[in-house]
Amino acid sequence: MDIVEVNYIIGIGRSGTTLLTSILGAHPAINTVPENYFVTFFYNSFKNKTCFKTSDLMLIHEFNLLFNRLQPYIGYDYTLTKEDDFLQQSFIGSYHELCKHFYNFFKHKTNNSVNAPIIIDKNPSNTLYCEKLLKLNPNAKFIFITRDYRANILSRIESIHIRPPSVVYNAIRWNYFTNKALKFEKQHQNQVLRIKYEELVSHPEHTLDRIFSFLRIEKYSKSHLQMSEEQAIVDDLTNHYSERLNKKYGDLIKPINTSRLDSWKKNLAYEQLILSDYICNGFGEKLGYKPQSNIAVLKKISLFIKTIHLRYILLIEQIKDETTFYLPIKFKVDRFKKHIERIERVRNGTKKK
């Protein structure tokens, strides 16, 4: 392949990662790909391989098709088919080079720049695997986007998602992702650019200039976000209608609304604000998000008792995810397929017979 660099957008979901990807995708030097975690999913099994059998390639292809059922590739076409020549012969090269080939089978419906020198891979879960991605791709750059924890929590409560709309649950997850990203940033400062969602929507040109300088590409105005891209999103939302997709991608075709930045002040109840500040205060202050609450010692003890069970539940989830990461790859793909089928039954309101 031609020399193409792969860079990453990290940060917890509902922090503007999709918006940023949409804006950057309009730049002629950038190709973006839809949210999909095949790179980290296959990493442990394929990281050291230099020869991939057709069965290996078919596993990745199967995963990509399954992921589209979980979360349709809004604004993109996945063009690879099982009859394609690429899947009929072994691939010789590193896993990173193989990933680049698979990236190229995701075609943006309007803005795909075939010869773009940069691919941007945006996936919130990449935040948890930055060190592994860096081993795979040592020259990678990471754009770390943050958002006020209260706004992020409110957004998750209001969104349609398979995860619970609990303040405690989402506050702990915000902490977990933020901690991972900050640790990585501290160790690799020259390869991480931290930006704020609030600055992206309030001062987009300045924020984008910082990003383009970091990526070492020509400056490009946000106004170049083309209407054709917006139409591609509209068309795909029509074809893949669901409340969750409409919520996630529908906002991209609306003008950026800065009035939503502080909506948490009105839309989070007092007790929800207290919980958010109690859990996220430490990392929030590091990122410049000041707590609104002055919590007394006795109240902190009460909140600790109130939240401890969910902390353990999330810890178990994390251990489960980390264990799954190391399972045999064929087993993982089969397990993922069953997971998709369970979700589809829930969406369709049916039960397994």
UniProtKB/TrEMBL annotation:
InterPro entries: P-loop_NTPase (IPR027417), TPST-like (IPR026634). This is Sulfotransferase. GO terms for molecular function: protein-tyrosine sulfotransferase activity. Keywords: Transferase. PANTHER family: PROTEIN-TYROSINE SULFOTRANSFERASE, PROTEIN-TYROSINE SULFOTRANSFERASE 2. The keyword Transferase applies.
